[in-house]
Design a protein that fits this description.
The chain contains four helices and no strands. With 156 residues, the protein is mostly helical. The protein starts with a helix and ends with a helix.
Length: 156
């Protein structure tokens, strides 16, 4: 197997970790929030933070490294329109993801404290949850578009 195929495999697998972990954790926290169970929300929000550190963060690093190497080995110019749009969409997803990480940390701490105290989640938790959700939609849409561009490689 050659270097290009090894890098391509790493790139594809890391993209699955990036988007799959993001979508999976968002799914579970979205529905845990709607359950109203403070204990469930505390557990799920803590695991969402852990999954982001273990899976999403390494994938965010691996994606551009392997992508740039694949471009070079594959002979794709940095100025190819589909690549420029992909870069912009990846950056948009990152711009959404960075505040999401901070919100998730705060939400997990708040939910854990409320669960330990046997109380309800305070208003700031729900405000953070709404922000978290609003940032997730454009991030996922951007990454879906990146997948499309990576597969189709349109000429524009």
């Amino acid at each position: 197997m050659n270097t290009y195929l090894i890098l391509k495999t790493i790139h594809i697998v890391s993209s699955v970790f990036l988007v799959g972990t993001g979508f999976g954790t968002a799914f579970y926290l979205f529905f845990a929030n709607r359950s109203g169970s403070v204990e469930s929300i505390a557990v799920v929000s803590r695991l969402v933070v852990r999954a982001d550190w273990w899976f999403t963060t390494p994938a965010v690093i691996i994606q551009p490294v392997t992508g740039l190497l694949l471009m070079e080995l594959g002979g794709w110019p940095l100025t190819a329109p589909w690549l420029l749009v992909s870069f912009a969409l990846f950056a948009l997803a990152g711009i959404c993801w960075l505040p999401v990480v901070w919100l998730q940390l705060r939400m997990a701490r708040t939910a854990s404290a409320a669960s330990a105290a046997g109380g309800a989640l305070p208003h700031p938790y729900w405000a953070d949850a709404r922000r978290w959700e609003r940032l997730g939609y454009p991030a996922f849409a951007a990454m879906a578009a990146v997948y499309f561009l990576m597969v189709v490689k349109p000429g524009f």
